[in-house]
Amino acid sequence: MSALMKKHLTDGVKIQVEGKKTRIFILPKIEADGLIQMLSKYELKDSVPWRESLSKTMKKYSEGGAMLKSERLLAELTQVDLAKKIKVPQHVISELENGKRPIGKVMAARFAKVFKTDYRLFL
Fold it and tell me: ∠ CA 84-113-104 to the nearest 5 degrees?
């Protein structure tokens, strides 16, 4: 006696979406083509090196300050939240982000621990 079995997609297209949680989808090729066509207007055609895209910001602020602000915003933290985590007043975070105070190795190490990254990112 034969039993019905789920049929696996052998000619499917794997789509992986990165975010807080990585999600993987397998679509039939014809549906994937439609999805790709729909998403094509959002495709990044020409990429620009990050230093070039942030050149105005880094002239006004510092490279370390721009990286600190970027990491803070990605982590969805306010300056007050970050200040509490590393035990400094909020105005210190503001001064570091705005290039009014240099980020030393000790402070960079604190940020690296909070954001789980390399301290050199902030120097």
Answer: 80
Q: What DSSP state is assigned to residue 57?
A: H
Orientation angle between helical segments 105-115 and 79-86, nearest 10 degrees = 110
- Give per-residue pLDDT as tens, 76-109: 999 999 999 999 999 999 999 988 999 999 999 9
Domain hosting residue 19, numbered range: 12-42
Question: Phi and psi of 87, rounded to 5°?
Answer: 60, 55
Q: Read off the DSSP letter of residue 71.
A: H
Among the listed residues 62, 120, 63, 69, the one whose alpha carbon sits nearest the alpha carbon of residue 94:
69
Same domain, 20 and 60: no
> Is 54 in the same domain as 112?
yes
